[in-house]
Specification:
Blueprint: H1 9-16, H2 29-38, E1 59-72, E2 75-88, E3 92-96, H3 103-110, E4 118-123, E5 126-127, H4 133-143, E6 144-147, H5 159-163, H6 165-169, H7 177-189, H8 205-217, E7 223-227, H9 235-252, E8 255-260, H10 263-266, E9 271-276, E10 279-285, H11 295-303
Parallel strand pairs: 3-8, 3-9, 6-7, 7-8
Antiparallel strand pairs: 1-2, 1-4, 4-5, 9-10
């Protein structure tokens, strides 16, 4: 169900930042960057929410009876079998399940990285299921943020420069005015104050992943999609990363969809969707809370046989 610098670093980081990260391998970097230059990120807007944000009833993201099939040799693999879900604006949703259950496939569809075989993905009221490559790239750059296990940081750039990369790619100057202030804001949000000029090799793995989170948040995306972001981190670093994600949701009203197999990570969410065999089998409503103990979630998972 559902790393650390890629080579060549510039190409991989450009393809990754912030919303082309994890994009299909066939999408040229030139296509991603040309779209970015014509689409300004939204960082110049005022902060989305005050310090005690709560989810809105308005859906930001929906899946409607989505299926996904892959043809492998003469075998058909059904990765998703009629999945429906709705994510409200400002909500923090976790998708759990064992390896092979379809959770990462679902996240790719939700982020416009792939097309469903049938059904539809609706993002901010618009069906994005049939977007062209160019339209999907524009959507990822303008409206969504991604965080993956691979950090995809550029080794020669500082923390500040890596986080500001989406603005740089878009032809904007992140060293001035509101963009500069927004970069500073997300550095503080993820707990990297004072490390602006550090290079990735001067940071721990946990700190590098927090840089990736800040880069995903800096444009104020409508939704942040995170695929196993704590998978390469130790217990303490993983907790710090999850704290950063939760603060972005609580303090800024950021909508988050987190894919994980880890109950401790899922316990930060308002709601947990449990997948198995390409379907959502159970839903656990945890509510917005400051206590992120995984014990209640583990107890409820045990009741449904997980």
């Amino acid at each position: 169900m559902q790393s650390v610098q890629p080579e060549p670093a510039i190409d991989r980081a450009v393809a990754a930042a912030p919303s082309a990260e994890g994009a299909p391998a066939g999408l040229p970097v030139s296509a991603a960057t040309s779209t970015a230059t014509s689409a300004a990120p939204r960082a110049a807007q005022p902060a989305a929410a005050a310090a005690s944000a709560s989810p809105s009833a308005d859906p930001t993201l929906e899946a409607r009876d989505v299926t996904k099939r892959y043809e492998l040799d003469r075998t058909t693999v059904e990765a998703l079998r009629g999945v429906s879900l709705s994510v409200a604006r400002g909500e923090f949703v976790a998708i759990m399940g064992p390896s092979g259950s379809g959770k990462s496939t679902l996240l790719q569809l939700l982020g416009g990285l792939d097309h469903p075989t049938s059904g539809s993905i609706v993002f901010e009221g618009r069906d994005i299921s049939g977007l062209s490559d160019g339209e999907a790239t524009a959507l990822r750059r303008e409206r969504t943020g991604f965080v993956f296990q691979a950090f995809n940081l550029i080794p020669l750039l500082s923390v500040r420069e890596n986080i500001a990369l989406p603005f740089t790619i878009a032809g904007q100057n992140p060293g001035r005015g509101e963009l500069r202030d927004r970069v500073r804001q997300v550095i503080d949000l993820v707990g990297l104050t004072g490390k602006d000029e550090h290079r990735p090799d001067q940071l721990s793995q946990g700190e590098q992943q927090r840089v990736a989170v800040a880069r995903g948040l800096v444009t104020r995306p409508s939704v942040l999609l995170a695929d196993e972001p704590t998978g390469n981190l130790d217990y303490t670093s993983g907790g710090e990363l999850l704290d950063s994600l939760w603060r972005s949701s609580q303090d800024e009203g950021q909508t988050i969809v987190l894919v994980t197999h880890d109950a401790r990570a899922a316990a930060y969410a308002d709601r947990v969707l449990v997948m198995a065999d390409g379907r959502i089998g159970d839903e656990i409503d945890l509510g917005r809370r400051a206590d992120h103990s995984a014990t209640p979630l583990i107890s409820r998972l045990a009741r449904i046989g997980l």
